[in-house]
Design goal:
- Helix 1 links the parallel strand 1 and strand 2.
- The chain starts with a strand and ends in a 7-residue tail after the last helix.
- The longest helix is centred in the N-terminal third of the chain and has 23 residues.
- By secondary structure, the protein is α/β, with parallel strands linked by helices.
- The C terminus is likely disordered.
- The radius of gyration is 20 Å and the shape is globular.
- Strands 3-2-1-4-5-6-11 form a seven-stranded parallel sheet, with helices on both faces.
- It binds nicotinamide-adenine-dinucleotide (NAD).
- The site of nicotinamide-adenine-dinucleotide has 31 residues, from helix 1, helix 4 and strand 5.
Length: about 350
C-alpha cells in the first residue's frame, strides 16, 4: 500500500513510520509541518529508506495537500498531525483550533476531492484513518468505569475539545459523503522519542539533572498507559483490517496514578543510573507537588475489548516492561534529548527532501 501519514515527525507518527518500514512492504509519505513537536531526528534510522518520503506541509493548505495526494496516489491516509499538549492548549488554544479542527476539515476536503476522482475499486479500497484520543470522553468517576466506543463525548480541555470536534467532522464526512473512514481513540502513550515536555521523559531528564520532578496536585490522577510501539501495531491492524465507519478504542490495561509513575521511574533510575547528581541521595527526594492544572481530569481508562475481539490486537508490553525499555532508551539517547532541549533539532532538517 501507499500510505500517507500526517504528523509523522511527531512522537507516535515517527514510531508508526519506523514500524511500517521495518515490518511491512508499504510505501510511506510523511506530511508534516514540523512544528516544535516535529523532529526529523526521530526518523534518522529510516530517512534514506527507499520506501520513505518526506514533505514539509501544513494540513491546512488544502490546494498543496490535494496536489500531493494527486501525485502520490495514496491508498490510505493515517491522520496524526495535531497540536497535542494539554498544557499548551490551556496557555494558547488558537493553534489547537486551527490545526486540529480547521486543519482536519481542510484535509478531509482535500481527501474527498482526491477520493471522488478514483475508480470504483480504488474508492472502495481507500481508507481515511483518523487517530484520536480517549480524552474526548472526559473523565471517569466510578472506580470500575471504562471508556467504551459508545461513551458520550465530554471533553474538558481546549485540546480534547478540538480533538472531539475533529472526530465529529471525520464521522460526518463518512455519513454525508461516504468517505471510508476509521477512527481510533487511544489512551496515554509513552516510549522512545517522546518530547521531553511530557510527564515520563520530563521526569527522567529532570532526575538525571537533579532538578525537581513536578507532580500536579496530589498526583492521584489515573492514566491508562500504552507503549507507543503497541499503539503503532494497533494502528496498522485497524487501517488494514478495520471495518469502515467503525471506532476502535486502544488501551494498555495499565492504569497508574501519576505519583506512582514518577516513583516507578525513580526506582528504575536508582538501578540503571546509580551515579546521581551532587546533593541527590535518592531520586524520589526530587518529587515536588505543584498547583494542579485547571480542568484536570481525574481518571481515564480504556475498554479495549473491541479491538482485541474483532482484530486480535493485544498489547505486548506491560507497564513494567515498557517503562524499563523507555528509561533505558532515554539513558542511551541523551543526545536526542539534548538536541530537543537546546533547540538544535529544529535547525537540522535531517532527511528533509522536499
Ligand atoms: N501522545 C499521546 O499520548 C496520544 C494519545 C492518544 C492520541 N494521540 C493523538 O495521536 C496523534 C499524534 O500524537 P503525538 O503525541 O505523536 O503528537 P506530537 O505532538 O508528538 O506530534 C504531532 C506532529 O504533527 C505535526 N503537526 C502539527 N500541526 C501540523 C499541521 N498543521 N500540519 C502538519 N503537521 C502538523 C507536528 O509537526 C508533529 O510532528 C495526535 O493526533 C494526538 O491527538 C496522542
Amino acid at each position: 500500500m501507499r500510505i500517507l501519514i500526517t504528523g509523522g515527525a511527531g512522537f507516535i507518527g515517527s514510531a508508526l513510520i519506523r514500524h511500517l518500514l521495518q515490518n511491512t512492504e508499504h510505501q510511506v509519505l510523511n506530511l508534516d509541518k514540523l512544528t516544535y513537536a516535529g523532529n526529523l531526528e526521530s526518523l534518522a534510522s529510516v530517512a534514506n529508506h527507499p520506501r520513505y518520503r518526506f514533505a514539509q506541509l501544513d494540513i491546512i493548505d488544502q490546494p498543496q495537500v490535494r496536489a500531493l495526494l494527486d501525485e502520490f496516489q495514496p491508498e490510505a491516509i493515517m491522520h496524526l498531525a495535531a497540536e497535542s499538549h494539554v498544557d499548551r492548549s490551556i496557555d494558547g488554544p488558537s493553534a489547537f483550533i486551527q490545526t486540529n479542527i480547521v486543519g482536519t476539515y481542510a484535509l478531509l476536503e482535500a481527501t474527498r476531492g482526491y477520493w471522488q476522482g478514483l475508480n470504483e475499486a480504488a474508492k472502495q479500497a481507500f481508507r481515511f484513518h483518523h487517530i484520536s484520543t480517549d480524552e474526548v470522553y472526559g473523565d471517569l468517576h466510578g472506580a470500575d468505569d471504562l471508556f467504551t466506543e459508545t461513551t458520550p463525548y465530554a471533553p474538558s480541555s481546549p485540546y480534547s475539545a478540538s480533538k472531539a470536534a475533529s472526530d465529529h467532522l471525520v464521522r460526518a464526512w463518512q455519513r454525508t459523503y461516504n468517505l471510508p473512514v476509521l477512527i481510533t481513540n487511544c489512551s496515554n502513550n509513552y516510549g522512545p522519542f517522546h518530547f521531553p515536555e511530557k510527564l515520563i521523559p520530563l521526569v527522567i531528564l529532570n532526575a538525571l539533572d537533579g532538578k525537581p520532578l513536578p507532580v500536579y496536585g496530589n498526583g492521584a490522577q489515573i492514566r491508562d498507559w500504552l507503549f507507543v510501539e503497541d499503539h503503532a501495531r494497533a494502528l496498522l491492524k485497524v487501517v488494514t483490517e478495520g471495518k469502515v465507519g467503525e471506532t476502535y478504542n486502544i488501551g494498555g490495561h495499565n492504569e497508574q496514578q501519576n505519583i506512582d509513575v514518577v516513583r516507578s521511574i525513580c526506582a528504575l533510575l536508582e538501578e540503571l543510573a546509580p551515579n546521581k547528581p551532587a546533593g541527590v541521595e535518592r531520586y524520589e527526594q526530587l518529587i515536588t507537588f505543584v498547583k494542579d492544572r485547571p480542568g484536570h481530569d481525574l481518571r481515564y481508562a480504556i475498554d479495549a475489548s473491541k479491538i482485541e475481539r474483532e482484530l486480535g490486537w493485544v498489547p505486548a508490553e506491560t507497564f513494567a516492561t515498557g517503562l524499563r525499555k523507555t528509561v533505558q532508551w532515554y539513558l542511551n539517547n541523551l543526545d536526542w534529548c539534548r538536541h530537543v532541549q537546546d533547540g538544535s533539532y529544529q535547525r537540522e532538517r535531517l532527511g528533509a527532501t522536499e
